[in-house]
Amino acid sequence: MKEINEPLKVLVPAEGPDLKSEVGNRFGTSPYLLIVDSKTKLIEALPNPGVSGQKGAGMQAVALTIGKTVDVVLTGYCSPTAEKYLTASGIEVIKGVRGTVADAVDRYRKGKLVFQASETGKPRGRSMDLPDAFAHTLRQFARILPMIGGVILLIGLFNAFVPRALLRSFFPGGRGMDTLLGACLGSIFAGNPINSYIIGGELLKRGVSLFGVTAFMVAWVSVGWVQLPAETAALGGRFAIARNVLSFIMAVVVALLTVVVLGFLTRGTY
Amino acid sequence: MTYAVLFMVAPHKTAMALKGSGEIFTRMGFPLCLVFIVMVLMDLFLQPGKITEFLGKTSGAKGLLLSATAGIISIGPIYAWYPLLKDLREKGAADFLLAVFLSNRAIKPFLIPIMISYFGWLYVLVLTFFTILGSIAVGYCVGNLVEGHLF
Questions:
Q1: Which residues on A lie below 8 Å from B115 (Cβ)?
Q2: Domain for residue B101, yes or no?
Q3: In this complex, which of A129, A137, A233 lies closest to B36 when CB atoms are compared?
Q4: Domains in chain A with CATH codes
Q5: Residues A258, A214: contact at Cβ < 8 Å?
Q6: What is the predicted ipTM?
């Protein structure tokens, strides 16, 4: 493997603004674009204009990269269109790169990362080996587990301090209100779905309508306001809030449709 | 901190809460290990381009079927799957399909017999049908909302 000694400007899409950050999986939408010299010294950390992921945003990242006159891009994945424009501008693109930015640039400098053509002639980067894959997954877990731990402790508190008898008093009667309140209640509970069936069965025995019980059970498994922080940390605030709000609406609609159709099929015996 | 304060006010219930949380952690052990292994295997054998091919924005009906099925057969609490979903998203999976996965977790085939014993088979059949439809609709709307297409 031939070491690269000439001064080069390397651009690496990254999850954070420093050399210890993970190499971004997607060139066009990683949060930052880091420009590093081949001696692994950070020159510039730029917010990626393509981070929104909207149509055309990736080309903004391409334009920025070309404007910065970099020599090579090290990335996890780069779309064929973006790669075409970059290589047409004389920029070498190496894909399938993993690990931290510092590590990636160091490996490139030592000649361990090279442009490879597959049998089809299409470019591909090197895949991860087992220690790298293990370490990468461990880092992902280390980032998200504390948030999950907090959510579980909160769920434990809720389950211990909210008595079941209180749940029945929550339902005033009436299809519309029961459905809405059932969805509200189900969306703040979490845990094994079997518990929702048990509680739902008891609520039904105590006179809560099937509309309310159905909305309660559907919301229990599909909506999670308690675990919203963990979902936000993993998938972003916009995704988490949109999914939970829409799932809440879905729980109400599904409950109404299910009981109405069931009533139609059984001629009102349900 | 909350636990410490509550322990002084209601020690018995707080101990119950802690025990309950511990049980949840224990139950999460197996699904979390499964998720960890899947993520390591993905890093070893799946290049990001393949993720995009199967679960990307243009994966079509194939991606929809894969994510819906994966959601239905996934086990364990929802938060055990967040690390995997984050990883898939970063590797090019579409938001729409991740939302379909999460929403279809509402359907639990191995718990259906229990649900039937409480509510009857016809109820479970109708509920499952509308839940699958609703999950796909939620996934579609989430995907478009996140990309800013709906507003």
A1: 197
A2: yes
A3: A137
A4: 9-127 (3.30.420.130), 146-265 (no CATH)
A5: yes
A6: 0.74
